[in-house]
Amino acid sequence: MDGIDEELAFLLRSDNRIEVLSALDDAAPLDRYELEGRLGASRRTITRIVGTLSERGYLRERDSGYALSAFGIAIARAYNGYRETAGLADRYRLLLRHLDADRLALDPELLRGAELIVATESSPYAILDRMLQLRAEATRVRELAPTVGAKSLGQLAERVEAEEGFEFEAVLPAPALDDAASHPEYAEAQRTIQASGAVDLYVSSASFSFVLGVMDGTAVVGVQVDDRPYALVESTRPEFREWVDSRLDEYRAGATPITKC
């Protein structure tokens, strides 16, 4: 165990040590009585903690109380930053655990404030329903998807027939297009879509089990489990939308446009 591992182990052996560092990082200096009030700990406990932290170089004692040393500030802020990032990762665990990090390295920080939707036994179509709603409300849609669904095809065909000013772009893997072509009941919708000047379709030689989408000002990232939609994050945060747009650009650049009828 190297030095920093020892320091982390030392801090994590007592919640009160972390709380003292955080309290002093928020509002220093604080005397022992103020620390007792903030932590709800006894004077004996506070005396022991500040003594140990001082010995290890985390604190400096002033006339008006205790303050963090430069070392204490660095460790406290690094630890709090780690906790924030780890908390975000945990909040969106159901998405991130199934996301292929080699193909789509998503920084959890981009997910701050995003809404998470998860398919459950009681709501198995929650993600599909939300995607249909987002598409229905948008005037410009960009997507990358691993499969083609009947409802999505039908919705898209209806929109391109009925509306002006609607734009749709999608990158799809070759097997998904082949599967759609094998269903005669999809044929009319596919002809309408491919003939439309509002729709740009691209076929990718890559396979993927995630979804990317930008619908006007909203961006989404989703994952499949056992070939079914499982988790989706949705956000209007500009940084997240820009990230999704950039990934869509990359996949479109590596795909082949489908010739319109």
UniProtKB/TrEMBL annotation:
Superkingdom is: Archaea
Domain HVO-A0261-like N-terminal: start-end pairs:
6-91
Q: Which InterPro entries match?
A: FilR1_middle_dom, HVO_A0261-like_N, WH-like_DNA-bd_sf, WH_DNA-bd_sf
> For the Methanogenesis regulatory protein FilR1 middle domain, which residue ranges apply?
124-253
Pfam family of this protein, just one? FilR1_middle
By what name is this protein known?
MarR family transcriptional regulator
Supply the source organism for this entry: Natronomonas salsuginis
